[in-house]
Specification:
Blueprint (H helix, E strand, L loop, with lengths): L3 H13 L4 H8 L7 H6 L2 H4 L2 H5 L8 H9 L2 H4 L3 E2 L17 H26 L4 H22 L19 H21 L17 H18 L5 H13 L12 E4 L5 H8 L4 E2 L1 H9 L5 H4 E2 L32 H8 L4 E2 L7 E5 L1 H13 L8 H15 L5 H6 L34 H16 L3 H11 L29 H6 L1 H11 L19
Length: 536
Amino acid sequence: MKNISKIVACFLALGLATTSCSDIEQFNENDRNITQEQLEVDFQHVGSLYQPIFESIYQYSPAWSYQLQQNLNADVYSGYLTNPRPFVSGANNTTYSLVSGWNNFIWSVPYDFVLDNAKQIRDLTETDFPTLNAVALILKVEGMHRVADVFGPIVYTSFGDLANAGVYDSQEEAYNAFFADLDVAVATLMADIDNGRFTEFDLSYGGNYTNWVKLANSLRLRLAIRISKVNPTKAKTEGEKALSQSLGLMETNADGFFVNSSLDHPLSVIDNSWGDIRMNASMESILIGYDDSRADAFFQEVNPNDPDPTPIVPGELRGVRGGLPLLPGYAGELDQKADYINFAVINDDIHTSRVQLMATAEVYFLKAEAALRGWTGAGNAQANYELGISTSFEQHGAAGAGAYMADNTSTPADYVDPVNASNSVAALSNITVAWNAGGTNEENLERIITQKWIAMFPEGQEAWSEFRRTGYPKIFPVVSNQSGGVVDTDIQIRRIPFVDSELSTNPNGVAGAVTQLGGADNAGTRLWWDTGGPNF
């Protein structure tokens, strides 16, 4: 993240700058002088609204926007990745000294580009072109449940309602609205499943509405599992609805939800160009401990031909502990970064312009958990678990899935930091890969979530949410907790507080949201579905 303080300061300055109405009109003008009538001939007045939604569920460009929106929070908190440079002299989001200017992007990007565009599409299409609105509803749920899973209460049902502007839904109310929106979307698409109007605007499925219904069903199952501890009755109802819908769920890797863009994957910039992100130590512990052949599909060495890539032994993939402070003995952030810069980077096959938002393997793990919970239509837990693993191996072209699934001895490995021994830590779990038919639900849930966590890489938002819900996989705590006691180091961070932009422009809305939160507006307060109680 180059000059991140300057970037944030620049945005703050832009926000305070005085702009005349005439200046705003200039920004709104089309530089090619295309009239609204011309746009409507090709239906571009609607179609042009989809691309910013697709590319802002997490934002492709500029890369530093994604870095603030997700990378320096969920991607790190999930145990997937970590920053080798201790930004802000080590007092930053990754050490729980939250930088409010960074966190504004978690809120502003989806509201400005996902929710606002989805509302415009609804206004233009709901009556005459309902299938177009149906797709926008699915995208809206995909984008906004992530926001709820960061903050808790969000502005959702009242968005665009002038009479109730800024009124927050509780997280439970938001989830009920997500399910209702998916109801409308599925019913609408099923009524006109062969309509091809969306084809030229679709960055995922080429206009195939069958795939969009499968995505909606799979997304419903994800959200149903998410609330299974806090509201098991509602969860079962919604989960069984997803499992019984006639078009079914994602089944093959071709069904996965990926966004195909002409823009570079933001992780490729953050990782390769800036050297600002590396493999997390928890990833090393689990992938290397299991001798998982997907490790080489996910990560690669920075300098494999360098005879002395200090301090890495050639052929090894090494991760970095999360939450590193500015350690003693270093002159500054960049000196410390230099010692970790040769640790494992993300494989170029991962950060292509095809961004993964929901892999099919995830769905099999969702079904495996649903089976543990006794939901009708979920099938056999072990069969789904093993299909999840084999589907993930297939997705990444990895070999040896059969032997991997039969391994009942390998466990996560201890982590050894070759730079600073004080960061070394013993493995936190002894769970094996092979299914244990005689094991408890809790034991096999740890297997399911651990393998789902691997399969969802690099989508850190969903991985962080599932870690908070279940406690799995067991990922290493931060080295340095600078929250001042707000966040328990062992329990780890639970949410992001409401952002400055909302506190300044919608103080009454935030005040109402805090009453719905059930605790203080800080990073240690659990969300509605994050009960902290037993998984079964």
